[in-house]
Amino acid sequence: MSEKLVCKNRKAKHDYDIEEVYQAGIVLLGPEVKSLREGRANLKDSYAKIKSGEIFLYNMHISPYPHAHNISLDPTRTRKLLLKKKEIKRLIGKTQEKGYTLVPLKVYFSGKWVKVDIGLAKGRKKIDKRRLLKEKELKREMDQFIKKRIY
Questions:
Q1: The total number of structural domains that make up the chain
Q2: Residue 56: CB partners within 8 Å, gap ≥ 6?
Q3: Lower CB density within 10 Å: C or N end of the chain?
Q4: Does 137 reside within a domain?
Q5: How much is the pTM?
Q6: 34 is a domain residue
Q7: Residue 117 domain boundaries
């Protein structure tokens, strides 16, 4: 099946160490799906939480579909995620550990279905972020140097 990317949370890999990734379905209404097909969504500052055995996605912004005049929806409303019970139980256990959280990584169409990748993540400290950026920069410089040296 082909995947069409709608939006990606670029900040997540910078702010968190992603340990596991789960693919979840999402409960949406018609105009929201049409808006997603146009690529009008944003995952900035969004997060997932588990409440009473179900997972919900908070602060995901889906812009209102301009041609849906009779339905007005809150763009940042809470949306339910669809996962298997076994996966939810595993996530409940993991998120109760200190420092773990659920972060949406990307939203995409898998065939005709809208899917969300949820990452089980542990927050990074500021010093870790700096160290990681330095390592990436050094690796990039070494690769460029090696590229120039080989004829």
A1: 1
A2: 48, 49, 50, 78, 79, 80, 81
A3: C
A4: no
A5: 0.78
A6: yes
A7: 3-124
